[in-house]
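subagent[fold] <- orchestrator: predict structure for attached chain, return tokens only, no commentary.
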Amino acid sequence: MRRKATVVIEREGRDKGGVFVLEEMPAMPATEWFIRAGQLLARSGTDIPANIGEHGATGFVALGMGAIITGLGKAPWNETKPLLDQLLTCVQSYTPPGGTMALTGWHIIVTQIEEAATILQLYEEVLSLLLGFSLRASLSAFGQRLMTMISSAIGPNTETSPERSESSSPAASPA
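subagent[fold] -> orchestrator:
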């Protein structure tokens, strides 16, 4: 059975409170999506490890979000757009804020979304669903580990700048 996710928009804005239901792509279209995305990134200059396929979809994340975003940013729009469009086929329904009935069909749903940030969040949520883990949580955990490593390397007693003493401060001029 394919994974499903319910996404409630919590960010302030016109879509706040809207509810989306997402469903994972079947294995074949998902595999093809990751292969096409990898090819696009490689053509855009991203270094793709030879063994990336051994890791399944999660190998895609091993590239690093910075490399993925940079690679997609360098890719021609006419090659990137179909990949983004295919991600949104995973959106099964949308109940707008204050709505009582779920809308279905992307061609209808897209006309009801008010904020560009909502679309960007949907890309992230669909990728998280396809990968089987949250990109946001993974990036947050990575950031926390990085900060811990930096703090350990710097140490609690590392002096960053000398404090000014009164004798090193410029004298105040009389008024």
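orchestrator: received. Logging for downstream: Strands lie at 4-8, 19-23, 91-95, 103-104. The CA atoms of residues 8 and 106 lie 17 Å apart.
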